[in-house]
Amino acid sequence: MPFAQIKDRALISVSGLDAEHFLQNILTTDLDTLAPREARPGALLSPQGKILFDFLISRAGDDGFQLECRADIADDFVRRLMLYRLRAKAEIAKQDQVLVTVAWGDDSTASRSDSTALADTRFQDITVTRTYGGKARDGGDPNGWLNMRIGYGIAESGSDYQLGDAFPHDVLLDETGGVGFKKGCYIGQEVVSRMQHRGTARRRVLIAVAAGPLPPAGTEVTVNGRPVGTLGSSNEGRGLAIVRTDRVKAAIDAHDSIRAGETPMMLAIPHWAKFTFPQDATSAEEA
Question: What global pTM score does this model have?
Answer without folding.
Answer: 0.93
